[in-house]
UniProtKB/TrEMBL annotation:
It comes from Agromyces lapidis. Gene3D superfamilies: Amino acid/polyamine transporter I. The lineage of its organism: Bacteria, Bacillati, Actinomycetota, Actinomycetes, Micrococcales. Pfam families: AA_permease_2. It is found in: Cell membrane. It is a multi-pass membrane protein. This is APC family permease. Keywords: Cell membrane, Membrane, Transmembrane, Transmembrane helix. Its main location: membrane. It comes from the Bacteria. The keyword Lipoprotein does not apply. The chain crosses the membrane at residues 17-36, 48-68, 89-107, 127-146, 158-177, 197-223, 235-254, 274-300, 331-350, 356-380, 392-411, 417-439.
Amino acid sequence: MTSPALAAHPTKLRRSLGLWAIVGLGLGYMTPMTVFDTFGYVSDESGGVVPLAYLFALVVMLFTAISYGRMTRVYPSAGSAYTYASETIHPNFGFLVGWTALLDYLLLPLVNALLLRQYFEAFFPDISGWVWVGGYVALITLLNLWSITSTSRVNATLLIFQVVLIVVFIGLAWGALNAGAGNGTPFSIEPLYHANVQIATVVSAATIVCFSFIGFDAITMYTEEAKDANTVPKAIVLSLLIGGALFFVAGWFAQSLFPSVEGLTEGTALPELAFSVGGMLFQILFVAAAVAAVAASSLASHASVSRMLYVMGRNSSGPIGRRMSYVHPRFQTPAVAIVFVGVVSLFAAVADLDFVFSLINFGALIAFTVVNVTVILHFAVRRREVKTAGQIVRNILLPVIGVVLTVLLWVNLSGEAMMYGLIWLAVGLVTLLVMTRFFRRKLRMSLEEDEVIAEGDEGADALLPEDRALLDAADGTSNDK
């Protein structure tokens, strides 16, 4: 039984986010400055074609982004892949998908806190990492508790700062290349292709940089806070294309300046790249932009994973789930879930960055693969929309390509990522067995205010397109009231 204190509070999130606010949260999550942090490692792994690795990853993500956009229209809930798998396949399977996705969603706020700890420890080695992590995590948690609108505004300010510095870097790099540095010209195709390029190394590098694109999918977490349900599919594609363009262009100029990474520190190339084009002053500003990027990603990732925990809690009948689904009566934010993410992020004071990175892409690529599969099952199998060539392309061909490409990246993950990812999945399976009493108890699935759009095997799935249009129109009218 739900306690009176919990029952008395509202259970819905506030619809306050417009298109560009959501795009900004997605870009903040993606952290455009990452291209410089990882440049040395990706250049070495790809054989000197960083922009090609980003382009390959972008193509993979575009197919998956289309699938996310389509499924968020069908199930406009904040649960993302967890919701789509639960509704389309089975709640038990959906729980495992959500559990696996938590591996990257829950760890990214921790990664950002860990990066900030490393930045400040380099300047102040005598101060304990707990001081930096504790203060930083408390600030990010309070901003997320306050309201999603305030989170969005702070994120936008930090995002603009880092994009301006990236544009300045590109301008300075253009001048340096014209002056004879690196390849000697900004128009060389060497950063994209040269005689020693091997597809295997490009794919291997793409599995690394796909981490940078995690964020477009997290946009679906804001579905229940978007002013208009149609905003989210547009924001998914826009954030992916804008982020991909920033990664590609910045990677192109960095690779043009440094055809070889000899002399660059593999894990900390960002300050060295900045110093090479603009000297000490620009290096300071560029590092400041990197700190801003970490803060923006912290805000966006903390907000999105708390929404996923909120939806998973809303669909649970246990005491833990009920508390995760608690919405603060004044701020209308998922308060308990936000605080929980903050507590997990505190482990950044002792965590190892390489170990955490090895876990993140495992969960993301599984979620991407499953979302593509749900498109096929929902539109081609359930609704049998395979009568025309256009329907076959949209409902079978495009998601199948998405599945193949994401699986290709997944099987190229490191052995360490596979091992720890499978351990996490096994823990999730044990948790599911306990929750369902070895599948004797059913998991509850609730989309709250949007349930009418996806009632199960009947309802929306059985509607003709013209009937669905009427339902969508009615839903839009109700949301405007």
